[in-house]
Amino acid sequence: xxxxxNDTSKMTQEINSNIRIIHVINGPITETITIRPIEEKDxxxxxxxxxxxxxxxxAPKTESVYSDPLTDRLFQSFYQHPRAGYWxxxxxxxxxxxxxxxxxxxxDTDCAEIVKFYLSPLLRGKKVGSALLNMVEEKAKESGIISxxxxxxxxxxxMQSPYMNVKASGI
Length: 171
Hints:
The longest helix is centred in the last third of the chain and has 15 residues, at 128-142. The protein has 4 helices and 7 strands; from the N terminus they run βββααβββαβα. A hairpin with a 4-residue loop joins β1 and β2. The chain has a 7-stranded mixed β-sheet. It has helices spanning 43-56, 74-79, 128-142, 161-164; strands at 10-15, 20-26, 29-37, 85-91, 94-102, 111-119, 147-150. By secondary structure, the protein is of the alpha+beta class.
């Protein structure tokens, strides 16, 4: 999958209650990236992306999201809980990213963890991940979550520097 998105591209956003559409303008060409709630049909594609990112960073494959059977059923995992949500990034009819929030056991009732935040190399460094994270935080707040946390379970699993600089409430 090729992309015309580069560092000189300009982005505009259309925002509605559950979907964010990003128009990336690069000269005379405009591409569209959609951030939307996960659907059951996305399970296979987002699971493949998550595992591909694990392989890319040589992250542990056992006792991790990589080998967790719930990774293949993210739609069901997130939408069986009323105070959880997961959004995917769709680009050129492919799922190229995802992120969600989940009130992880052991956290205060008004706290959730930002979870399963993965982005294809195709869109890293383009501020699309920042837009996704911001939307997830907004949706968490709308569901009554007032504090979010991010945990990184793998010391050798590197986050891209643009995501480390995202201003996120409660993080």
